[in-house]
Amino acid sequence: MPKSAKLSGIKSLRCYTIQEAAGVTGGSDRTIRAWIKQGLPALESERPTLVRGNALISFIEGQRQARKSHLSRDEFYCLKCRAARKPAGALVDCETDGARTKLTALCEACDTIMHKPITPISLSEVSDIFDVTMRSAPIRSSKADHETNARNRH
Q: Which residues of the chain form beta strands (DSSP E)?
């Protein structure tokens, strides 16, 4: 079973039975029935129970929006706390690897390592907020480099 429901196969102008809705979203019958209890509009006066495609799409998108955590510039998302947290002591490490820049900090509440991707352009804004320590990206060697080093050792 997929962790999140698929939207790609749902047709908005079609009505689905519970079994069909489960099949098109990649979920189970129990999941669709639980969604109906949580507020998914359904035509329950009909037999079998029908769910409109546009209602199903709206419900799934609403669930996804509710799960999103909107962070301010001075916050990270802590996976252990499951909440937006500020870095302990406003200390942040920054690692740049080509076009990617990643901030790393410790959670102020539980001391878990938190990561936050940013754009290289916004690095100057971040350095105004946090005490940033720049770290170099680890050097990735290729298979040819390993073979050359192995030959040179013998």
A: 15-17, 50-52, 76-78, 83-85, 91-97, 100-106, 113-118, 131-136
